[in-house]
């Protein structure tokens, strides 16, 4: 079996009597595939490669409520989410990750894969108290075979995730591993991803606890190699737009160039490298093209399902995305003073798109401006003269455009505020006041623990007229209430 294996090398080698996640130094691969195996897999992939047909590009798959995210290779909308079955393996309370952590992890992978058009939807969470499996499951061993045989659900297009401890002698320090799509035909019961439970959001495996172990492993599950596959050789990872890389990157070594005679710096920010979670932030268009082709070839997606009539909500939506104008207010122009980077803002917009996919809404970053003003940064709270001054100076666009302001809320009366927003029906009376104001520390990678994954869709829910935000399981009554408001907010297609 071919598999990907993420390994975290511990600074300390011992285990205490009460297990706790050790401090981690590096993430590495314990089982790089031999060149002959890679070449064989690639030869088979090229021979069987399926480029989505025109019918597949335009067919409407079965849906709940559709999404209009797009993939570069497919001109029609990818609108059927991949179903996720999560199997939580525990020893009593140890490893029993919460529903909130799992929801946060699903949001992380949806944000990471937003540019590819792939959407993941949690179908079921199953909890199994089994000490042996929890501690001993590892790649290719009898315990993982037992676990997957007993628990795996669905078909080739369904993603099974198993969270375990990897803390016996053989697997100690492992973060995760996955199967490749071309393996499904021979070993369907083995298909899926296994990760360390402490690598998901809220876990203690710093600096690998923001959820990108799963992002990386799913990359293998949809057919991507490591960016350093093949080193500085001519084939590499079989993707044209990922620069060659001689070996894995650790930490976040900006400017690293391990293949100096070849174009480009090492792709250390790519999800298929081994950098720290906080450093990872992109898939390339070439990777998107490859995984899309792999999905079509190995039936990992909606392409394997029959088409049905689009939903009523699809017929009611407009095609135009909501433009997002992001206004960064900082205290002194530094990152610590609130001057968040373009990449953080882009990640935030991708994060915003993920939970709104069932509503048919899409958000598109239209502009970023930056203002250094310590007073506004500190004092722009709801109803204050400072927020009025800020919005009067900066707001852009019309009723159909979303203006987002990031500030510090450092005034004593504002320190517990994560964000606030206007309602859509307030626009007619006070259009200049329209928009959402956020604490910059709640953006992805911020330090507002528990609220730093970028889930301001709650505030955006106020802005669309939903009393508690619109979540991925939004019901018909919420949508029926919100749609007339959204149609007023959106510009004609």
TrEMBL record:
Its recorded name reads Zincin
> Where is the Peptidase M43 pregnancy-associated plasma-A domain positioned along the sequence?
209-295
What's any GO biological process attached to this entry?
proteolysis
Q: Which PANTHER family match?
A: METALLOPROTEASE MEP1 (AFU_ORTHOLOGUE AFUA_1G07730)-RELATED, PTHR47466
Q: What is the lineage of its organism?
A: Eukaryota, Fungi, Dikarya, Basidiomycota, Agaricomycotina
Sorted keywords for this record are:
Disulfide bond, Hydrolase, Metal-binding, Metalloprotease, Protease, Signal, Zinc
Please name the source species. Coprinellus micaceus (Glistening ink-cap mushroom)
Name one matching Pfam family: Peptidase_M43
Query: What InterPro entries is this protein classified in?
Result: MetalloPept_cat_dom_sf, Peptidase_M43
């Amino acid at each position: 079996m071919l598999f990907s294996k993420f390994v975290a090398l511990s600074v300390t080698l011992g285990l205490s009597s009460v297990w706790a996640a050790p401090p981690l130094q590096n993430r590495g691969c314990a089982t790089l595939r031999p060149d002959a195996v890679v070449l064989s897999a690639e030869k088979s992939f090229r021979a069987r490669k399926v480029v989505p047909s025109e019918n597949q590009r335009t067919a409407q798959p079965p849906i709940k409520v559709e999404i209009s995210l797009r993939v570069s290779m497919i001109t029609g909308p990818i609108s059927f989410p991949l179903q996720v079955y999560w199997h939580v393996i525990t020893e009593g309370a140890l490893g029993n990750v919460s529903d909130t952590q799992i929801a946060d992890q699903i949001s992380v992978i949806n944000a990471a894969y937003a540019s590819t058009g792939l959407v993941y939807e949690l179908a079921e969470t199953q909890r199994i108290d089994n000490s042996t499996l929890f501690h001993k499951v590892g790649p290719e061993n009898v315990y993982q075979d037992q676990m997957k045989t007993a628990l795996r659900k669905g078909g080739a297009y369904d993603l099974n995730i198993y969270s375990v401890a990897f803390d016996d002698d053989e697997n100690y320090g492992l973060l995760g591993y996955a199967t490749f799509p071309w393996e499904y035909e021979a070993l369907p019961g083995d298909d899926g991803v296994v990760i360390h439970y402490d690598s998901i959001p809220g876990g203690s495996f710093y600096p690998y606890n923001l959820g990108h172990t799963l992002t990386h492993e799913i990359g293998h599950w949809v057919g991507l190699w490591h960016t350093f596959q093949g080193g500085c050789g001519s084939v590499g990872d079989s993707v044209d737009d990922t620069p060659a890389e001689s070996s894995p990157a650790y930490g976040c070594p900006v400017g690293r160039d391990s293949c100096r005679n070849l174009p480009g710096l090492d792709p250390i920010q790519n999800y298929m490298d081994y950098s720290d979670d906080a450093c990872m932030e992109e898939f390339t268009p070439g990777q998107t093209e490859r995984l899309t082709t792999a999905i079509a070839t190995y039936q990992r997606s909606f392409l394997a399902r029959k088409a049905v009539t689009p939903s009523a909500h699809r017929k009611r939506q407009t095609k135009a995305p909501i433009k997002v104008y992001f206004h960064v207010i900082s205290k002194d122009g530094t990152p610590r003073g609130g001057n968040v980077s373009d990449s953080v803002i882009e990640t935030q917009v991708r994060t915003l798109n993920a939970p709104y996919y069932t509503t048919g809404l899409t958000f598109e970053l239209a502009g970023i401006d930056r203002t250094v003003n310590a007073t506004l940064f500190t004092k722009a709270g709801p109803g204050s003269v400072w927020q009025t001054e800020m919005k009067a100076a900066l707001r852009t666009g019309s009723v159909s455009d979303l203006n987002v302001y990031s500030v510090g809320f450092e005034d004593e009366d504002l320190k517990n505020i994560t964000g606030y927003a206007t309602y859509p029906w307030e626009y007619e009376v006070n259009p200049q006041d329209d928009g959402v104001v956020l604490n910059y520390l709640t953006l992805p990678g911020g330090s507002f623990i528990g609220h730093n994954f970028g889930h301001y869709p709650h505030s955006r829910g106020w802005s669309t007229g939903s009393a508690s935000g619109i979540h991925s399981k939004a019901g018909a009554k919420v949508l029926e209430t919100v749609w007339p408001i959204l149609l007023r907010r959106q510009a004609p297609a």
